[in-house]
Design a protein that fits this description.
globular; mainly alpha
């Protein structure tokens, strides 16, 4: 059973861009399955080899998240050994396997979101927004795009107000009040909006 709709429904109630969060979740699941479960699958290894491994963005993610240091070592030991056996034609750029997997998933997400928009927008939380990158992808869906834009703008104003309040509380001339959770999260939310990517992580690291 595909849980895309239910994942979106959950993320529409949370903070940040739901599509950025869904992408981050998808990437983490992909890397967990690869480095823990499929690391010794010969077909998987051959496919990664043929695609010349991962792109720079996803290599950085692998390094930062480190789902399994042993799994990473096995995959990249294999890639390094085969790297010097390839001729110049074989070393031409190909699509990163994780980028390819996400593109396929993203098409399904787009269809699901458009089809179930009315159900999803009823779950819209007061800290959720669409980043410029993902908002742009829905310009062709005029009515939905306008609603997304309006709802996003309303919530960004709330987040902006919290950010201003957060800054003021660092002024020594101002009476110190306790900083709220929303205020302390506001700078991270604004960074994610402009980055077009989920920056916060709830990953619980497992041993290698």
């Amino acid at each position: 059973m595909d849980n895309t709709f239910y994942d979106l429904k959950e993320l529409f109630q949370q903070s940040g861009c739901p599509l950025c969060a869904l992408k981050s979740r998808f990437e983490e699941r992909y890397l967990d399955v690869l480095f823990y479960e499929n690391v010794n699958d010969p077909n998987v290894r051959e496919r990664i080899r043929n695609q010349n491994g991962f792109c720079q963005e996803h290599i950085q993610l692998i390094f930062q998240s480190r789902p399994s240091v042993l799994g990473i070592s096995i995959i990249y030991d294999d890639l390094l050994r085969h790297h010097f056996q390839k001729d110049e034609r074989e070393l031409q750029e190909t699509e990163c396997p994780l980028c390819h997997a996400w593109k396929e998933k993203e098409q399904y997400i787009h269809t699901t979101l458009v089809k179930r928009w009315n159900n999803l927008k009823s779950e819209w939380g007061d800290r959720v927004f669409f980043c410029p990158v993902h908002l742009k992808q829905y310009q062709g869906e005029k009515a939905i795009y306008q609603e997304m834009n309006k709802l996003t703008e309303e919530n960004l104003k709330k987040i902006g107000a919290d950010l201003s309040s957060f800054i003021k509380k660092f002024d020594y001339r101002v009476k110190k009040d306790s900083i709220t959770i929303d205020e302390s999260n506001s700078w991270q939310e604004v960074l994610e909006y402009f980055a077009g990517r989920r920056l916060r992580s709830n990953r619980n690291h497992r041993p290698a």
